[in-house]
Amino acid sequence: MKEIAIEFLNIIEDNGYKAYIVGGYVRDYLLKKESKDIDITTNATPKQIKKIFSNIIVKKSTLQNNDYGSVTINYKNILFEVTTFRKDLNYIDNRHPASIKYVDDLETDLRRRDFTINAICMDKNGQIIDLLNGVPDLKNKSIKTILDSKKSFKDDALRILRAIRFSCTLNFKLNDEIIEAIEINKKYLKNISYERKKIELDKIFASSHAREGIQLIQKLNLEKSLDLKNLNLIKDYTDIIGIWSIINSSEYKFTKHEKELIKKVNIVLELNNLDKLVLYKYGLYVNLLAGSNKGISKKKITKIYNRLPIKSRSDINITSLEICAVLKREPNSFLNEIYTNLEREIINNSLKNDKMKIINYLKTYFN
After folding, report:
1. What is the CATH number of domain 313-365?
2. Paired sense of beta strands 128-129 and 56-58, if any
3. Which of 264, 230, 232, 269 is nearest to 247 (CA)?
4. Comparing C-alpha atoms, which of 58, 23, 63, 65 is closest to residue 40?
5. Domain map of the chain by residue range?
6. Comparing 59-68, 242-251, 319-328, which segment has the lowest mean pLDDT?
7. Distance CA 113, CA 105 (A)
8. Fold annotation for 1-140
């Protein structure tokens, strides 16, 4: 990936502009971590970038006086986010600058960013450019804002969550200045959209240090500002859906699939996750999420689930047409009642999942 990114920089520079890799990719490269994000900063404007590359996506800007936001370019199946050197002017709504000004100076652009560890650059020769001392902060595992922390978090309150995210995902420390600034500015998190907050929270909850991230949210007393409940009830920090199920927030928006899973987990939280019918009906994954948060051994739940004679209705050794033939009836809604009965009998080991035994059972109880 680095080779392709360097190649990408050279294309821009061959057209007479300056360009650097910046942010997460460089940070992770120095930490010897894999990274999928590649951000490019350049003195070329979006219109000029459009003339160099064809396979681009232009994002509409949220700024009032700008026709363009960042430009995303698909180059050799890698997405590059390209932004022009800029200076942010007069932040509004604790998130966005009211306007920006394009500049021709790399350091000016870097000074508008959030943390020193995200302002390290790499040039077309693969050389590291560290104008704001982010490399020493990486070595010291320290998260520092570029601007005064109080101003930085007031300008863009989402940076509070980003600080927590980097702290837990990288296992870095927040210094006293940042902790104090978070305490002063946490009220502004109310002004950030739940969509943007959820993106950061998802990254915290999905990290291998989710426990530390959640504990940091509690330590900084951010639950009210973030509309998060029940954090003290979370016992299993290994699955993002499991965590959101315990939080059970109506404020944050979820995909249809996420909603279905969260609903099921909340149902089985009130049930016995070692019960064979509960395991059969709601599946292993949902019961593991609920059970582990109640202190039930995952190994024990899995063992009982694996011993179920059937895992789904399709495993029952008779078809609906065969049932109709045995009972001499036309297909109808009665089939659901019969299948429900067969599921219960087979799961409870009262009936073998054998076609002839099922046929005899049907003749005895449904004829």
Report:
1. 1.10.246
2. unpaired
3. 230
4. 23
5. 1-140, 142-228, 236-308, 313-365
6. 59-68
7. 14
8. Beta Polymerase; domain 2 (3.30.460)
